[in-house]
């Protein structure tokens, strides 16, 4: 045993030395450049409060118990969680670009003796990190900055500074109309132009939209969807007046447009006022809040449409499989008439005819059909084209094309309640198909 004692002692000494080397190496190992340049060094989940002081403004956002963020100063506003999350991510990943001076004797030359911007981030267990942002660099590509607890002055790229320096308005919710387009089943638009008032009401029945005022007709779903999307998609360009104390100043005491949206048991009203500065955008507010906003949508369809624009532009809508036969007449130039009977048509010929009918597009809405209508004035008492389709339920679907005008033809169709002006190209294509199919 005695001869192994020296070996055991040597081995013990080696283990002690190895432990010492590991311990001292780990303790004295310098941080990487990446760690040194991390400005705040906090993960998003660890942040509890962010305070941004910039010039005369200050904004404080604080994480609530439910892990959402809220504005605590200068007032209580609805906040955009997306905007705050972007700020939190910017704080978590913010880095100094390069060291300018390790121990400056005069911070004033960097604008850091009394900095214009101060960003303080608080984390768990009282942890706090504060960034000071001073003057812009001579070339204007960034700013001088330093941590409160570190004498070094660094260069901060402008992109990093812009992501960190936020005001209350930057963090506020900018989407004011929260309704989703899918939930909306009614829209009313009251427009005032030079004293004239247009009142349009559209209603959704099942999956189909209808005009209920001032025209009673099937509505164009794509155009209704556009009206709803343009309204619900408004985003704030500027928070103008949170008190709404002088609506006349913004043209909202007598708004030029009012939009009512209904759906999912709730209603929303939006008012559109005067155009914004330089005729860009317009002022608006919702009916349930005093706030006045400036918005600048690229286009805003509720300001531009007329009621006839909302009428479903497809004159004929059929289920091809329900058609079991067709007859037609077409006027010749000399006054004679071509008649055709397609009850023995093959499916390809019938498909061509139905497609031609469904391609006819309405471009204008005329007189409402009724017992006292003068069909002769539209050329519909003796139409240039008349097509009758026999349906499998025993009913007849009829399309009549009347007098030709410079901009198109008059037309009527089963299930539609007006005399319509339809595009010439659709009628010319129908005429060509009928002549080809005629015996």
General description of the model:
The strands form 3 sheets. This protein has a 9-stranded antiparallel beta sheet, with helices on one face. It folds into 3 domains: 33-171, Immunoglobulin-like; 181-310, no CATH class; 320-437, Dna Ligase, domain 1, CATH 3.30.1490. It has 439 residues and is of the alpha+beta class. Residues 18-34 have low confidence and may be disordered. The chain has helices at 2-28, 33-37, 81-93, 158-164, 168-171, 221-232, 347-358, 424-437, and strands at residues 49-54, 57-63, 69-73, 98-101, 117-122, 128-136, 142-147, 153-157, 186-193, 196-205, 208-213, 217-218, 236-241, 257-263, 266-275, 282-286, 292-295, 323-331, 337-341, 362-368, 385-391, 396-405, 408-413, 418-422. 25% of the residues are buried. The protein is 21% helix and 35% strand.
Strand count, sense and closure of the main sheet?
9 strands, antiparallel
Supply the CATH class of the largest domain: Mainly Beta
Say how many strands there are: 24
Mean pLDDT: 87
CATH topology of the largest domain: Immunoglobulin-like
Number of domains: 3
Strand content bin:
35-45%
Give the helix level as a range of percent: 10-25%
How would you describe the shape?
elongated
> Largest sheet, order of strands side by side?
12-11-10-9-14-15-16-17-13
The poorly predicted ranges are 18-34
Instruction: Report, as a whole number of angstroms, the end-to-end distance.
Output: 123 Å
- How would you classify the helix and strand content by structural class? alpha+beta
CATH architecture descriptor name of the largest domain: Sandwich
Number of helices: 8
Over the alpha carbons, how many angstroms does the gyration radius reach?
37 Å
């Amino acid at each position: 045993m005695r001869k192994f004692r020296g070996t055991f002692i040597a081995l013990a000494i080696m283990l002690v030395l190895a432990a010492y080397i590991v311990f001292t190496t780990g303790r004295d190992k310098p941080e990487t450049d990446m760690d040194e340049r991390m400005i705040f060094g906090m993960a998003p989940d660890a942040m509890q409060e962010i305070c941004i002081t910039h010039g005369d403004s200050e904004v404080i956002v604080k994480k609530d118990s439910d892990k959402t963020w809220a504005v605590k100063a200068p007032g209580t506003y609805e906040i955009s969680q997306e905007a705050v999350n972007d700020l939190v991510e910017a704080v978590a990943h913010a880095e100094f670009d390069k060291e300018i001076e390790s121990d400056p004797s005069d911070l004033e030359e960097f604008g850091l003796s009394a900095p214009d911007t101060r960003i303080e981030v608080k984390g768990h267990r009282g942890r706090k990190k504060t960034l000071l942002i001073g003057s812009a660099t001579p070339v204007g590509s960034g700013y001088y900055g330093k941590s409160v607890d570190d004498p070094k002055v660094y260069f901060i790229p402008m992109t990093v500074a812009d992501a960190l320096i936020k005001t209350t308005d930057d963090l506020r919710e900018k989407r004011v109309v929260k309704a989703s387009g899918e939930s909306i089943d009614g829209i009313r638009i009251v427009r005032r132009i030079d004293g004239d008032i247009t009142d349009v009401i559209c209603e959704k029945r099942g999956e189909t939209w209808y005009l209920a005022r001032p025209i009673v007709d099937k509505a164009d779903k794509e155009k209704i969807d556009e009206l709803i999307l343009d309204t619900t998609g408004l985003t704030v360009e500027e928070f103008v007046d949170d008190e709404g104390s002088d609506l006349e100043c913004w043209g909202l005491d007598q708004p030029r447009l009012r939009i009512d949206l209904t759906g999912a048991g709730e209603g929303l009203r939006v008012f559109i006022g005067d155009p914004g500065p330089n005729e860009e955008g317009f002022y608006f507010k919702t009916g349930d809040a005093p706030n006045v906003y400036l918005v600048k949508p690229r286009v805003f369809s509720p300001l531009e449409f007329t009621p006839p624009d909302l009428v479903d532009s497809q004159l004929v809508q059929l289920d091809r499989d329900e058609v079991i036969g067709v007859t037609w007449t077409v006027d010749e130039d000399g006054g004679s008439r071509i008649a055709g009977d397609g009850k023995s048509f093959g499916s390809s010929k019938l498909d061509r005819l139905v497609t031609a009918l469904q391609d006819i597009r309405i471009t204008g809405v005329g007189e409402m059909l009724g017992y006292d209508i003068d069909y002769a004035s539209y050329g519909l008492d003796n139409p240039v084209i008349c097509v009758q389709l026999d349906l499998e339920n025993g009913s007849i679907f009829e399309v009549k094309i009347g007098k030709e005008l410079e901009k198109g033809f008059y037309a009527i169709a089963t299930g539609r309640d007006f005399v319509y002006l339809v595009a010439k190209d659709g009628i010319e294509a129908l005429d060509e198909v009928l002549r080809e199919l005629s015996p």
